[in-house]
Design goal:
- The protein is built from 14 helices and 13 strands.
- The strands form 3 sheets. The chain has a 7-stranded mixed sheet with strand order 2-8-7-6-5-3-4, sandwiched between helices. It has a 4-stranded antiparallel sheet with strand order 9-10-13-12. The chain has a two-stranded parallel ribbon with strand order 1-11.
- Helices cover 43% and strands 14% of the residues.
- By secondary structure, the protein is an alpha/beta fold.
């Protein structure tokens, strides 16, 4: 093999995103004329607030086509600071904020700024598919902590404590969680913060679903605790809350030294987030109707969640907890696999896709083998018909 044929260890080690790959497969089936029930993408099926579209059009007309500061436009950072205060009760300084081209790069850049080769990052499982790969790309080692279905997949401080070693450099938390929908309890968040303080390590708090909580469930973030600015990087963005997945605007709010480092790295990698998208994101954050927009959407999501959960739970061999947040249901299909003689969750996902064009994501991608993840960020009709189609495959 010639030098030009050989690629780096990183190029060979990184696998495609399971969620994006299966979502693409759903698109192929639809293009081929199949009626597809796509439960893969974590993407709201409605439009952003009207203020977002109006602000973007105005920004284009006013010539927002140039580079911006690497860490984001000051007006956008100010909007994030005020939004953060409303959500967390804390007003960060502008030099603690870095606007990034999505929450995913904000996490990745934070890991790049924190991790040295050999450092360990504690990741509760089930986890978002990209976390272990991001850690590996930064030269770190993922230490996966398994959570329990009987505890609603919520990680406990005791489980984190058992995983901490002298090599622990960072704890990566995600609440509400993708893929389980678990929302961390305040007492556990406080206890995990104390563990991080004792171990003198960072915490990356991925709060991207913080506005997507249901019923009486309350969201509580480590970014609300006294002393958070010493070690906690709070990650958020407009993708899920304001249905702006394609606009690619997220942010880091955290320690000043980390914010400076992320800004330096971002300057070398992407220069700056897209100018027009930044203006649109600020409009979403500043919109006085923003809370009403979120409440309306959450009412829809809660109904969809209940419908999907009821229909999944009625299928023979399927069990699943009712998620408190986000817009995913993680279904335990171990009994189905045993009854149907299937080797793994990927085999079942493939069978559902081939027979009924029901597309979901195997739990193995999330550190949850023998499970399937379903997104209910789609319309009720698709949920009902898709669940019925799935039941036809699973019913003996």
């Amino acid at each position: 093999m010639s030098n030009t044929e050989r690629l780096s260890w990183l190029a060979n080690a990184v696998k495609p995103s399971e969620t994006l790959a299966l979502s693409a497969k759903a698109g192929e089936l639809k293009a081929a004329g199949r009626t597809v029930y796509n439960f893969t993408a974590g993407q709201p099926d409605f439009n952003p607030p009207p203020s977002v579209i109006a602000a973007a059009k105005k920004a284009v007309d006013q010539g927002f086509h140039k580079y911006t500061p690497v860490d984001g436009l000051p007006a956008v950072k100010e909007a994030v600071a005020q939004w953060h205060q409303r959500c967390y009760g804390v007003t960060p300084a502008l030099d603690q904020i870095v606007i990034c081209p999505g929450a995913k790069p904000a996490i990745d850049l934070s890991l790049m700024a924190i991790i040295n080769p050999g450092d360990e990052v504690i990741i509760p499982a089930p986890y978002w598919v990209s976390y272990p790969t991001m850690v590996a790309m930064s030269g770190g080692t993922s230490v996966v902590v398994k959570t329990r279905a009987e505890n609603g997949y919520r990680v406990t401080a005791a489980e984190i404590a058992a995983a901490i070693t002298p090599k622990t450099r960072c704890i990566l938390l995600n609440s509400p969680n993708n893929p389980s929908g678990a929302v961390a309890r305040p007492e556990e968040v406080r206890a995990i913060y104390e563990l991080a303080r004792q171990a003198d390590c960072f915490v990356i708090s991925d709060d991207i679903y913080c506005k997507l909580v249901y019923g009486d469930t309350g969201f509580f973030s480590m970014g609300s605790l006294p002393g958070w600015e010493e070690r906690v990087a709070v990650i958020n963005g407009v993708s899920k809350t304001y249905a702006m997945t394609g606009w690619r605007i997220g942010w880091l709010v955290g320690p000043r030294n980390l914010a400076r480092a992320v800004t330096r790295i971002q300057g070398q990698v992407v220069s700056n987030p897209t100018a027009v998208a930044q203006v649109a994101a600020a409009a979403a954050l500043n919109d006085p109707e923003g809370d009403a927009y979120c409440e309306k959407n959450n009412t829809l999501f809660a109904r969809r969640r209940d419908i999907m959960h009821e229909m999944l739970s009625a299928m023979p061999g399927v069990s699943c907890t009712l998620p408190d947040g986000a817009f995913y249901i993680l279904a335990d299909v171990r009994q189905v696999l045993a009854r149907m003689g299937l080797a793994c969750d990927m085999d079942l996902a493939q069978l559902l896709m081939e027979r009924q064009a029901v597309v979901c994501v195997p739990g193995s991608a999330f550190g949850a083998p023998d499970h399937l993840r379903f997104s209910f960020a789609t319309d009720e009709d698709t949920i009902v018909r898709g669940m019925r189609a799935m039941a036809e495959v699973l019913t003996p």
